[in-house]
Amino acid sequence: MRFKKIMLLGSITPILIATSAITIACNTTTNNTGKTEEDKKDPVVNKESLEVARVNYKNAMEAYNTKLSTYAKELKAMKVAIDKNKKDEALKTSRKEFVASKESELKELRSKINTTFKALNLAEKDSDTQTLKIFHTNDEHGRLKFDDGKYNNYSGMDTLAEFLENVEYTLLLSAGDLIQGLPLSDSDKGKTISLVAKEMKYDAIAIGNHEFDFGLDHMLELNKATSSTMPFLSANVVYNDKVSEDKKGKLPFKPYIIKEVANGFKVGIMGITTPDTTITSHPNNSKDVLFNDPVESSNKTVSEIRDKEKVNFVIALTHLGIGRNIEKWDSNYFAKNALDVDLVLDGHSHNKVDIAKKDGDQAYLTQTEAYTQYLGEIDLVVNKKTGKIESVTQSLRDINEVELAAFGKKNDNVKNLIKDLETKFGVENNKVAFKNTVVFDHVTLQNVDGTEFWKGRVGQTNLGLFAANAIADEVVKAKKDDSKYNADTVIGLMNGGGLRANIAIGDVTRGQALGVLPFGNRISAVKVEGDTLKAAIMHAGSKMKSGAFGQFSSNVKFNIVGSGEGKTKKYAVEEASIKINGKDIVATNEYTIVTNDFLLAGGDGYVMLKYADKSKNVTLDYEGGDLLDVLINHAVYTSNEANFGDSKTNTPFAHKMSFYGEASSIKNIVVK
After folding, report:
1. Is residue 33 pLDDT above 60, yes or no?
2. 100-149, pLDDT tens digit by residue?
3. How many CB atoms lie within 10 A of CB 627?
4. How many domains would you assign to the chain?
5. How do residues 589-614 score in pLDDT, each as one tens digit?
6. C-beta atoms surrounding 62 within 10 Å
7. 28-32, 99-103, 327-331 — which is least confidently predicted?
8. Burial of 97 (0-12, 13-18, 19+ CB in 10 A)
């Protein structure tokens, strides 16, 4: 076992931290859990001229990337064919055989990269430049497991861990929103995925807005368990005046760390958290902290990094995002205005951003979208004296590249952590979540125009109504101190295809509830003007017979009319029939649409709600937890008669569960 040198904030003396990663003379990191003892020996590397070393490394990378890209395209085509012919077992077998057949070749090519990277670092010892290889992700959102479903394509932390086995690199970093996102990961509030990231040897992770989803105290406990080798970082989150005197104005998390890498070169790594956390996570979760201005906080922190720590290369892990409505909270603004930051690894907005430095910017900026859809692999050549980046190349590796390169590798520690969580998750799923008193019907088949469809795709259902009310109620209660959030201004919207099962009367286990909402979506809300609200409703009603058909909260009413016959029949909403709490929509008034993150990314054709598109007048207003938990909590509340007394309703969207058993409850959307 070697030792890796890390300098932490406030500690000028290096701290030696034991790590299972091999640290060779050039101080690169190798993930090598699955190596034999012979494999673990450092190859004999002759110190060669810098020019030759650069050419050899460049050629090795190009050879690997060419082959991997070609094979990934072939694998993608196979998956498309399988999706079209799901019962064709021969296609599935061919896919498995294809991936296995490339293992030896790709391992050999990556081994060549490892050898030439080591040689390059040795050759750079007395030069003015240093080559850094940085892997990065962001917004993993609980994606622990590989998932190549039609709409997913997530490599998963398990397969990323395998990809990184036996790979030489300098740093592995995340721009935040790691711990929250899917039921499996959420079941222990992000504890396992944090330990998985630590086991994968992430060097640092930014605090994202969803790191607050389970409360600040919980996040501090997670950080305590990982911070010796993998701290969560934020330079702009500070305690406010509501806390004890000894905490006021202090930072809950380390603002930065210093990593000493190859040839003694030092890198400063800083975290920045979006100030919109106060609205994009539940407000109660951040009630004890302030989110200071990102650029101002960065300038203060970088000044300390450069002056006190004598470091002249700085990476900012920014959980800010692009296309934000408030310019000062946008990562493009940060890259342009944050002084002496060299590289911005971004997150939050879930965009794929190829690495680039715009004219006038201080730093290079990149982002890997979200959900482990891409793994960023960056090669930087940095001037040791000035800290300036002299050249940069990047590969954003998708699920197909990751799957191919990971095949045949193992990380048993990561695998076992996930397996243990799955076992506990199975036990939890067998527990009763709530007692149901109404038959909730949504996926029963109904004949329309000679073809059978799920009820929830051709008309309003009581389950669709219940789910839409549940999410609307969540936001109204979270914003209870703001009178603008009421039945006149807030609506709930669920896509009919997002609800996947009926619910029978009786005890309902968490596993059964998960069958209703299996996708791991989270509750999200946007502010829009009346015209956009109307466009969303018009779109929802026009999508009869598809999963995009809208299920709305109980304050929304409209009529749908059809034209044509059979399969060519088209549907449209009668615009004049649309009412919100009995009132017409006012084009210029502000409304809140509460829905799920899938629709707010433009899913199911709801492009008018895609808040990341800055050309649209749509503002993110709220981000909460898992839809599954919202549904369960609402069911527990509404099934308790004591919460209502003699009334059927006690908030605009909280109705006694018995209300949903009445036929009149689903008369708001009329198909003519």
Report:
1. no
2. 999 999 999 999 999 999 999 999 999 999 999 999 999 999 999 999 98
3. 28
4. 3
5. 999 999 999 899 888 999 999 987 76
6. 11
7. 28-32
8. exposed
Helices (H), 611-670: 627-638
Residues 101 and 154 in one domain: no
Domain shared by 119 and 219, yes or no:
no
Question: Are residues 196 and 287 both part of a single domain?
Answer: yes
Question: Which DSSP category does 602 fall into?
Answer: T
- Domain assignment of residue 14, yes or no: no
The set of long-range contacts for 53-58, using a CB threshold of 8 Å and a minimum separation of 24, is 53/116, 53/119, 53/120, 53/122, 53/123, 53/124, 54/120, 54/123, 56/116, 56/119, 56/120, 57/113, 57/116, 57/117, 57/119, 57/120, 57/131
Same domain assignment for residues 160 and 102? no
Residue 307 maps to which CATH number? 3.60.21.10
The domain boundary, picked from 378, 400, 421, lies at 421
Q: How far apart (Å, rounded) are the C-alpha atoms in residues 63 and 70?
A: 11
Instruction: Answer whether residue 276 shows pLDDT above 80.
Output: yes
Q: CA–CA separation, 402 vs 427, rounded Å?
A: 32
d(CA 221, CA 235): 18
3-state secondary structure 212-255: HCCCHHHHHHHHHHHCCCCCEECCCEEECCCCCCCCCCCCCCEC
CATH of the domain at 446: 3.90.780.10
Range of the domain at 322: 129-421
Half-sphere exposure of 411 (CA within 13 A, CB side): 26
Is the pLDDT at 15 greater than 60? The verdict is no
pLDDT of amino acid 29:
63
Report yes or no on 38 lying in a domain: no
The reply to whether 135 and 118 lie within a common domain is no
pTM: 0.78
pLDDT, tens digit, 9 for 90 and up, residues 383-395: 999 999 999 999 9
- Examine the fold and report which residue of 375, 393, 421 is the final residue of a domain before the chain moves on: 421
What average pLDDT does this structure show over 545-564? 95
